[in-house]
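Hi P.,

Sorry for the delay on this. The queue was packed all week, but I finally got your sequence through. Input first:
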Amino acid sequence: MTDGLSYPCLFGTMTPVTRFCPKCEAHQNTRVETWDEHYECDKTFIVISITSRICVACGEALGNDEMDQAIIDTVQSIATSVGQRKKGLTP
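Then the structure:
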């Protein structure tokens, strides 16, 4: 943190985004984090990249409709692909 109001990033500085955190029961600064989660789907191991807004104070992942929809779309696409491959519809 450079001045308490902004964070260094690749494009200069970024102002923290404040959101309500249900765990803290208060508005808190947040950051966006990305990590990989590993799952097994029909005996096929898959990795899904998760992006979520995180409360800086407590580390709780906060809901975000756009980010959540991106995860759902990815999971549906992978599940469809795995299902088609199991049925011999794709190489």
